[in-house]
Amino acid sequence: MLLSSLVLLASTSGCGLLGGDEGDSAAQGNGQVEKAKIKVSVMPLIDVAPFHLANKKGYFKEEGLEVETVNSPSGQAGLTKLIAGDVDISYGGDIPFVMANATGSADIKFVAESSSGKPNTMMILTVPTSPVKNVQDLAGKKIAINGEKGVSDTLTKSVMKANNVDFSKVTWVTLPFPEIAGAISRGDVDAGFLVEPFITQASKSVGTVPVVDASSGPTQDFPISAYGATAKFVNENPKTVEAFQRAMARATKEAEADRKVVEPLLVEFAKIDADTAALASLTKFESKLDPARLQRVPDLMLEFGIITQKVDAAAMIAKQPQD
Hints:
The protein has helices at residues 22-26, 49-56, 59-62, 75-84, 94-103, 151-162, 177-186, 198-206, 231-236, 238-257, 263-269, 274-279, 291-294, 296-303, and strands spanning 37-42, 66-71, 89-93, 108-116, 122-126, 142-145, 171-174, 191-195, 209-213, 223-230, 284-285.
């Protein structure tokens, strides 16, 4: 997903190692895994809370991994680092990963799921003085998104279509998530797509109100983000990938069960205040890759013309550990 640009100041985790040389790392298989030192690109989002939890609680180390956290300002930046070989695994939106494979720009495998939408975690918002009062009013309006051919515009189109609203004459305005609330408040746009914690921040700062929940109807529980690696890395390092998957599954289960373990991570790594962390609706944390569920991503992309031919999501899934 793909989803925001808060500045993450904590650039490495307590368990991470800095300055590891790629050649040295490759030689440091420890018997448990082929590559002990790995670099993982993440973003300052709620979605990656289980990753930070796994690092802080030593779950990666227990699996024989030493993880260096590499911060990226966007999912596209993380994907670029992944393709260039600057990182081994990258967090990002499901849509950009599928797009990379569909266009032939890379051969990406999903190594772990990250999140799916829950009610109130992805919203189209406006202000009370806006002429937009409901989803029908969005036709022909100016809507802020964080990038075209991504989650924000695709899910907005989907909920408009589901409500028989024509999206063909919408003017899409691309802005970073932190700037969308201000654009709505000033009247630069009629509405905007936001995710948490920006939804809560926008409500507090400019008094935004919901127009429609983008995680509803055909996009309810929609897969949003994942961790990806190149097929080459997955093929050459199957034990390393499974070790990462086991650690993420363990942390994800804990994060999903108790938001109290998540909120301090949002304050520390996403740099949001404790009040916002307590109020924000949390995404559904995922780790297990389900082919049928992930197939919804390329199918929706095909429906809205982001890709031109069907993509088999199952073929993009790396082998997972047995339950």
